[in-house]
Amino acid sequence: MESMIRMMSLQGGSSRNVFAKIDDGTYFDSLPEKDAFAQIIDSYRLRIEDEYKFRGDAGGLYAGEAPLPDFRQYLNRAKKKGGVLPKWWSREKRRACGRRAVDRAQWSDLNSAVEKADIMEHYGENMMPIKLRMLAEKVAGSNVMSM
Predict the structure, then answer these.
(1) What is the rounded average pLDDT for all residues in the chain?
(2) By C-alpha distance, which of 9, 46, 1 is closest to 25?
(3) Is the pLDDT of residue 4 over 80?
(4) φ, ψ of residue 128 in degrees (nearest 5)
(5) Nearest-CA neighbor of 46 among 65, 29, 59?
(6) All residues at 6 or more sequence positions from 6 whose CB lies less than 8 Å from its CB, including other chains
(7) What is the CB-side half-sphere exposure of residue 8 using CA atoms within 13 A?
(8) What's the rounded Cα separation, in Å, for the pair 36 and 145?
(9) How far apart are CA 81 and CA 74, in angstroms?
(10) What are phi and psi of 59, to 5 degrees?
(11) Exposure of 118 by Cβ count < 10 A (0-12 exposed, 13-18 middle, 19+ buried)?
């Protein structure tokens, strides 16, 4: 992940600040709760898409399973790792995030697959897939391509 941050710092100061915040666990500190929930959910969605696409691993939705239990495991790993979830995270916030994650009225819905292009279009930001992948790498402990 440090090499990713070094690479991103070559692209400019503000991007570098965002990636450094992901690395040091302060990324969510300045985001509204709804945006933090969406990005946590979407980091999971993109991770399982990448695992399926690049490694052929089918989990959650891609395995034809209800996606919420797998997402809960993702949240468990994030909590155990530390430095991923927002400082204000609690059991109540976890439940609220889980409810939002399966709310079909939300774009960030575990019941829908997502691809890199979808993320870029939805967020209007070309760097968002990299941010979400970095968050997911912190949770999983590795890059999807290095497993």
Answers:
(1) 88
(2) 1
(3) no
(4) -60, -40
(5) 59
(6) none
(7) 21
(8) 25
(9) 11
(10) -135, 155
(11) middle
Q: Which residue has the tokens 């430095």?
A: 83
3-state secondary structure the chain: CHHHHHHHHCCCHHHHHHHHHHHHCCHHHHCCHHHHHHHHHHHHHHHHHHHHHHHCCCCHHHHCCCHHHHHHHHHHHHHHHCCCCCCCCCHHHHHHHHHHHCCCCCCCCCCCCCCHHHHHHHHCCCCHHHHHHHHHHHHHCCCHHHC
CB 11 within 8 A of CB 71: no
Total count of residues recorded for the chain: 147
- pTM here? 0.87
At 31-75, the pLDDT tens digits run 999 999 999 999 999 999 999 999 888 888 888 889 999 999 999
pLDDT for res 102: 96
Task: Spell out the residues 6+ positions from residue 33 whose beta carbon is closer than 8 angstroms to its own.
Answer: 86, 88, 93, 96
